[in-house]
Amino acid sequence: MPGFQYSFIRLTGEHRAYTRLPLLIQNPATKLSAIIFGLVDTGADATLFPATLAVRLGHKLKGVDVKTTVTGGIEQHPVVAYRHVFEVSLLTPDRRKIVWHNRMAIDCLESDPPLLLGVEDFLRYFKLTIDYPSKTMRLSW
Q1: 140 has pLDDT over 90
Q2: Would you call 83 helix, strand, or coil by DSSP?
Q3: DSSP-derived 3-state class of residue 55
Q4: I need a labelling partner for 118 at 20 to 30 A (CA). Which of 24, 37, 38, 63 fits?
Q5: From the CB of residue 82, how many other CB atoms can be counted at a distance below 10 Å?
Q6: What secondary structure letter does DSSP report for 46?
């Protein structure tokens, strides 16, 4: 079973390191892409992207053909989400190689949350083992 071990990541200005994974996110229509860290959220049903990422990659957030949904949002406060299609690629820990890839429709929120990796559309593809004492996690597929 292929897999990789990832260390928890602390971004600039944060006090703690978190369960983040390196991702390559691409808009399949524009081919614009970005490498970004996604926060593993085993309590989130769905993956959520910040609106700023969708716009940066060339999506029209509230375009004519964009589907809208109301999501439970953060802390179960209803939030309007705009669904866009992305190519999501998991990178090796050194961010040099794609090791897993899938096209998926992702809800984008104007409130600009951190990029959250949820269970139903991302984490369901993996066996996830989190080792909090050593601040590592292993994904296998």
Answers
A1: yes
A2: strand
A3: helix
A4: 63
A5: 21
A6: S
Number of C-beta neighbours around residue 16 at 10 A: 7
Measured distance CA(81)–CA(69) in Å, rounded? 5
Per the document, the length of the chain is: 141
Q: Which two tokens stand for residue 107?
A: 């809800």
In the block, residue with structure tokens 């990178």: 91
Torsion of CA 109, 113, 117, 122, to 10 degrees: 10
Asked if 6 and 139 count as a contact pair (C-beta separation under 8 A), the reply is yes
CA 139, CA 106: separation in Å to the nearest integer?
21
Give just the sign of the alpha carbon dihedral 91, 112, 62, 75: positive
Closest CA to 101 of 137, 125, 119: 125
Residue 49's SS3 state is strand
Predicted TM-score (pTM) of this structure:
0.91
Q: Could you tell me whether strands 33-40 and 48-50 are parallel, antiparallel, or unpaired per DSSP bridges?
A: unpaired
Residue 81 has pLDDT above 90, yes or no: yes
Per residue in 9-35, pLDDT tens? 998 999 999 999 999 999 999 999 999
Eight-class DSSP state of 9: B
pLDDT of residue 74: 61
